[in-house]
Specification:
- The complex is a heterotrimer of chains A (252), B (222) and C (205).
- Chain A is an all-alpha fold and 252 residues long.
- Chain A has one domain.
- Chain A has helices at 2-14, 16-48, 62-89, 92-124, 132-153, 157-185, 204-236, 241-251.
- In chain A, helix 4 runs antiparallel to helix 7.
- Chain B is built from nine helices and no strands.
- Chain B has one domain (2-219).
- Chain C has 205 residues and is α/β, with parallel strands linked by helices.
- Chain C is 25% helix and 29% strand.
- Chain C has a six-stranded mixed sheet, sandwiched between helices.
- The chains are: A mainly alpha (252), B mainly alpha (222), C alpha/beta (205).
- Chain C: This is Heme exporter protein A.
Chain lengths: 252, 222, 205
């Protein structure tokens, strides 16, 4: 039953035209929810959450840093999954996604690095430390750059997407290995503050605004991906009847 | 199996007849390494500290640069199209190519590395580990780099793009390779690290050639 | 497998490249014993069409059906480039092609047949463009494959060579092969012709 539903979803979302109408319906309410959630999380975290007994107010950057890092990582994983679907099953929408997911993810990786550096100065006394997580994030940024650069130089959009998809698949395996290998080198970073299972080491008064801004940023990422994918779908299907009809209706 | 043997013989022959492809990476390796004592300082203690990293980074770059032309000439001459339309799985000739390429460009780096390690003032006890780590690491570098080479084969500005695509993928091998040499220089047991390098090699050998053939198919227009 | 089952069906085939429709709505059935000539101006999409047929280009609309799943076993494809490495001599090049394609036959005799007797061990770098093309064409004189797909086989070939190639292609068709090639040169009478122009594909006989 679940399988059937999933399969139907897969086929529906695999159709560019269906995707377009679907996203038209989703975006009007997803966009405000995303913006409001993120704003609420950030305001709560930056202005109202208690200050840390060790780090004072400087810790507040985690309300940006942690959501950005998690978003960047999730984005790359999504690239890998899209790559698998695009390369193995040749699904057109997965190709579109490969183009739509990368830029925002790369931006988040960059934000994560900058905020991490800014946080590092008061905490460690230096902007940059080659610790496991910052190094991993730097490499993740490099891999985003690779995916984007490869798509930029291949002229045929479908071929470009499939090439990037293969690279992203290899990249996802690499992300996992890199994570363990840089941890093996050394770790200076503090332990993980949020745990999915078991007890968190973070005060609930800080945890909830953090979760809220994380959720908000993920939703915003989703909005961005949908918008980019819509543009790409329109461009790719510009010769089809439904796009032409849509454009004419828009003119009126 | 016959196709593999024929392909391997052919690849070895092609490389053997263009000696620059074999010698250049080797010279690059030696030259880059000889730059470091000049640039940093010839002080033995200092050199010995940076030697594992220098050796490994130089080997990594030498392998990567040698890969840029791995498929290009076959693509330009039309051999690649023949390979992709043949009734054998593309993995077979691809494996032959990778093996031949490593034997004639990777293996020489491994063989000369103890000499360079000695010149960089590494303790003699670490020289075996230098060789062994490169022996396990360079094939992995060749295979992973070939994925990038396959994806960029049809593009006329391969070189720097290849580096952008491939260098992040080289990092795990670099870390454990250089780590093994450092540990050996410090007198530690390196069996565990070499085992990890071996595991990475096994992973790349099992999945890499498939990814390379997939990359070639994508580059051809699939 | 009987030769008469050999068949290629194209159903509403279309291909777009660099923002331009090369051809669309191309439907045809090609059978054993037929010779198909594909014509069209430069850039009309002849090479792309052949690459779609042999599975090198996968971005197209419509369907391309070969008569059996392992059609590649019986395919002899000569691409736009002759597929000859300059580091190797004609014999080595030919042997490699045969090993990859599971094609048997006497390479020396085939090279002699295309007029390369005495050039067997000259590095291909020293051969002329026509001679390199002949190295590739030598495969037509080995064990006969059921499907020939030849991209501009006449390029750089001299007059005698053209006549010889005509005869070889006709002979292959009579023996039950399906021959598809691109060129402005017509092999002989009874050749089916497919013309590509301005995004249209027309079958002329």
């Amino acid at each position: 039953m679940v399988w059937q539903t999933l399969k139907r979803w897969y086929h529906m979302l695999g159709s560019p035209r269906y995707f377009y109408t679907f996203s038209s319906r989703v975006l009007p309410w997803l966009t405000p929810i995303a913006v409001l959630t993120l704003a609420a999380g950030l305001v709560w975290g930056l202005a109202f959450a208690p200050s840390d007994y060790q780090q004072g107010n400087s810790y507040r950057i985690i309300f940006i840093h942690v959501p950005a890092s998690s978003g960047a990582l999730m984005g790359y994983m999504a690239l890998g999954v899209s790559g698998l679907v695009a390369v193995v099953w040749r699904m057109k929408m997965a190709e579109v996604m490969l183009k739509a997911i990368a830029p925002f993810g790369a931006g988040l990786a960059a934000i994560s690095l900058v905020t991490g550096a800014l946080w590092g100065k008061p905490t460690w006394g230096t902007y940059w430390q080659w610790d496991a997580r910052m190094t991993s994030m730097l490499i993740l940024l490099f891999m985003y750059v690779g995916v984007i650069a490869l798509q930029a130089v291949i002229r045929d959009p479908r071929q470009a997407a499939r090439a990037a998809g293969l690279l992203a698949m290899v990249g996802v395996i690499n992300v996992v290995i890199v994570k363990y290998s840089v941890e093996w080198v050394q770790t200076l970073h503090q332990g993980s503050t949020l745990k999915m299972f078991g007890e968190s080491t973070i005060d609930p008064a800080m945890k909830y605004p953090l979760l809220l801004s994380m959720l908000g940023l993920w939703l915003l990422y989703a909005v961005n991906v949908l918008l980019r994918a819509r543009t790409e779908v329109m461009w790719r299907e510009r010769r089809s009847k439904w796009v032409n009809k849509l454009v004419k209706e828009g003119d009126r | 199996m016959n196709a593999f043997r024929a392909a391997l013989g052919r690849e070895l022959l092609v490389l053997w007849r263009s000696p620059a492809e074999i010698i250049n990476p080797l010279f690059f390796f030696v030259m880059v390494i000889s730059l470091f004592p000049l640039a940093i300082s010839p002080k033995p203690e200092l050199l010995a500290t940076v030697a594992p990293g220098v050796l490994w980074v130089a080997a990594l770059l030498a392998v990567m640069l040698s890969l840029d032309g791995l498929f290009r000439r076959d693509q330009e001459s039309g051999v690649l199209d023949m390979l992709l339309t043949a009734p054998v799985m593309p993995v077979v000739p691809v494996l032959a190519k990778l093996l031949a390429h490593w034997l004639l460009t990777g293996l020489p780096l491994v063989l000369i590395s103890p000499l360079l390690g000695h010149m960089l003032q590494l303790p003699d006890a670490a020289l075996g580990t230098v060789m062994l780590s490169l022996l396990l690491g360079t094939p992995a570098l060749t295979i992973v780099g070939a994925i990038g080479a396959a994806l960029t084969v049809g593009l006329n500005r391969g070189g720097i793009l290849l580096a952008v695509l491939v260098l992040p993928l080289y990092i795990p091998v670099l870390i454990f390779g250089a780590g093994a040499v450092s540990a050996a220089a410090g007198g530690a047991n390196v069996d565990g690290i070499l085992a990890i390098l071996g595991a990475l090699l096994a992973l790349t050998i099992s999945l890499g050639p498939l990814a390379v053939s997939a990359g070639l198919k994508i580059s051809s227009g699939n | 497998m009987s030769d008469s089952s050999i068949r290629l069906e194209l159903v509403q085939l279309g291909c777009e490249r660099d923002d331009r429709m090369l051809f669309s709505g191309l439907s045809l059935t090609a059978r054993a014993g037929e010779i198909w000539q594909i014509t069209g101006a430069n850039g009309a999409g002849k090479t792309t069409l052949l690459r779609i047929l042999v599975g090198l280009h996968g971005f197209f609309e419509g369907e391309r059906r070969w008569w059996q799943p392992q059609w590649q076993q019986d395919l002899l494809y000569l691409g736009h480039q002759p597929g000859v490495r300059e580091e190797l001599n004609p014999l080595e090049n030919l042997r490699y092609a045969c090993a990859l394609n599971h094609q048997v036959g006497d390479p020396m005799a085939a090279l002699a047949a295309v007029g390369l007797r005495g050039f067997e061990d000259v590095p291909a770098a020293h051969l002329s463009a026509g001679q390199k093309r002949r190295v590739a064409l030598a495969r037509l004189w080995l064990e006969r494959k059921a499907v020939w797909v030849l991209d501009e086989p006449y390029t750089a070939i001299d007059q005698d060579g053209v006549a010889q190639l005509d005869a070889q292609m006709q002979q292959a068709a009579e023996a039950g092969s399906l021959v598809i090639y691109t060129s402005h040169h017509r092999v002989g009478d009874g050749v089916q012709r497919l013309h590509l122009e301005n995004g249209r594909a027309e079958v002329l006989s």
